[in-house]
Specification:
Layout: H1 6-17, H2 23-30, H3 34-46, E1 66-74, H4 79-87, E2 92-97, E3 104-110, H5 113-124, E4 129-136, H6 147-154
Antiparallel strand pairs: 1-3, 1-4, 2-3
Helix pairs in contact: 1-2, 1-6, 2-3
Amino acid sequence: MTPFDKTDARILLVLANNPRATGVEVASILGLSRNTVQARMNRWHNENALAPMDARVKPAELGHPVLAFVTMRVDQHKLSFVTEELRKIVEVIEVFGLSGESDLLVRIAAADTDDLYRVAGLILDIPGVERTNMGIAMKELVPYRTTPLLEQIAGARP
């Protein structure tokens, strides 16, 4: 993948503020040619450089307002299997491989605490899961964001 440069960052900042802007509108705002903007956007698409659209959907709006994080220790020989089994649980919305004492970090969206208990049971039933530790998110303090990084690349932030 080609790393984002200053022009990419400027285009993405416009789109972050106005996701429905057309290539022509972005070009006009930034003083770039429409072809430049379209070529950049096509490259991002072809290189899978942007997160999928569903990453913007808030689980609470889908009836799953309870957010929990589970750290897991797994049998290393079964790591791939455990990952595939986690993928089958619809309430599992992200899984990260970790270094350190835990092997995986799993993000769960649940309808309520009873639902969360059910999902925790599904996770514990996966062969190869050795230990879990769960924390329920009480409040999102810093939401997922890349705007400060884009501003830094664009030269708008020191």
